[in-house]
Amino acid sequence: MTDSTRLRAAIERExxxxxxxxxxxxxxxxxxxxxxxxxxxxxxxxxxxTLSAGCxxxxxxARSGGQPAVTGWRPGRPNVLLYAHHDVQPAGDPGxxxxxxxxxxxxxxxxxxxxxxDDKAGVMAHVAALRA
Length: 132
Hints:
With 132 residues, this protein is an alpha+beta fold.
């Protein structure tokens, strides 16, 4: 079996779980703006930390001077910086949404929900790569 065949198999194996975890992350309305409940942002960080730790790195939630940031590392391994944010912009006027903003839904093969692309999908792309 070639390396690319093994990689494709790993991606196929992990995709359903990554999709389910992305949907769960979308359900957490972690908005990092004044006037919003920042305890929800803490839940979002905790979920990202759990997902990350499940891939092997040591993980911590840093709160120095701002909102919670999740960092992970593997001692004795080369450093690689992967960046994505788990917080989202305010959803705005609920009347402008076809479905509730924090209820992920698939339409025409695309996943919709607040943060589905920017940037909770970025978080999950890193998790998926680590899992695969």
